[in-house]
């Protein structure tokens, strides 16, 4: 097992190679100790041991944000309060991943009522958007970055409204006070992290197209550097407005107008977002998707995310197989995980989209008999040669064509447990690293609309995840809360585009089946198979499985796998937290 304990610290050359191809690449562990609090957390992370605590814990992608959340929790705030403080800081110090210009999904387990629910703060397409949004004059799909950079890809942001809704529902702390850390850091400056500096430098050409983004990220034409103090007074002013007058201020009035002008005025690639679109934005409460797994309930985000259903299907298909007996070094275990994932992804591509717009067989896809039928396909000795979507029970004809959305990884995951027994799991994004590259009022605007399928039809058959006015693009974000006897046992989630699903499923299997603590489970090398190619994490012990998997019939590719898992386990001994060695996050608890 020891060999499996460390994917951390990819060799520098491997990282360099990865940086060139992935928008948000991995970074090594251990930087930016802001105070004693995060220094201790970073020591634990570097040593590969989980952080332990009794009362509360926060595990997020950046030490400044973790500390802001920890201060709120230590002062008696709830997980919802802490999330507001964390998100406000992340929007400053990790602007490439999430912020006020983006969207998010939040799972909440309520300590008092024992209920689990979700908030959908996903971006929405403008009312004027239609099936040709991402097609060129010849009806062909645009190239990914031609669609992304500029106004065309920008959906109505959901994150500000989500912060407000979560606070109104579950907060105890004074709203305005939750922004004080972020405002102070924006005004006085924060130290640019290695990761932010590396990503700005790698994206300089695209970031430089918007004059506002250029002057912030590339002052005097040079990318902001690691270790540099960076101030964002415009962001501070926006946060002061939100703190004083509420998040609605992003949706109506001066800030909304500025967003709309920016999108519509984007040179070369304008969008159609309007003030009406902004003012109509709504956060939607939805039931979680919960699937039983080895005596637990794995609860996740339903449509418009594919996260909960696809993670649920993978685990559901694996339920019949004794992974614990096989262990994490067994090619047979990974054959099953990889092909369960391919089967689930086939259903995802065919059936999953915004269920407010297209009928989605949510129950049928994770119904026990259906999953058992799909799992029967795995009873063989070698990799599946062909993978087709299944036919889940549904009272509606399901004649959809397969989707072709491209998702490249950025995004951030927030896991929080508070001293009242509440658990929060939220994945938050502006989609691609630096989103649309348009900056306004101190934050970047998302490019979430490129999560729609660029093609609306295939051979005359509509795609479920096609662009429609007011629709939310299908997501892969998989904020998850695993329950045991109705109580939270694991809070987990990750960025990583559609590989999020594999990262989260792996972490759950590692923790539940293979008995790993959360830090080991997060660190465990990744092997992800979505569409046929088995991605094996570069520079990790998983490489040893490459040949055995090939022998089973898989195509194998070795590559950097850029997760950002943050997990908190809850057990009889209290809380244990793990932060992904592939990014800069930490867990802090007390
Ligand atoms: N936009 C993606 C989604 O909603 C997330 C991108 C990422 O994780 O990097 O699924």
From TrEMBL:
SUPFAM superfamilies: N-terminal nucleophile aminohydrolases (Ntn hydrolases). One of its GO terms (biological process) is glutathione biosynthetic process. Pfam families: G_glu_transpept (PF01019). GO terms for molecular function: glutathione hydrolase activity; leukotriene C4 gamma-glutamyl transferase activity. Its EC number is 2.3.2.2, 3.4.19.13. Pathway: Sulfur metabolism; glutathione metabolism. It catalyses: glutathione + H2O = L-cysteinylglycine + L-glutamate; an S-substituted glutathione + H2O = an S-substituted L-cysteinylglycine + L-glutamate; an N-terminal (5-L-glutamyl)-[peptide] + an alpha-amino acid = 5-L-glutamyl amino acid + an N-terminal L-alpha-aminoacyl-[peptide]. Belongs to the gamma-glutamyltransferase family. This is Glutathione hydrolase proenzyme.
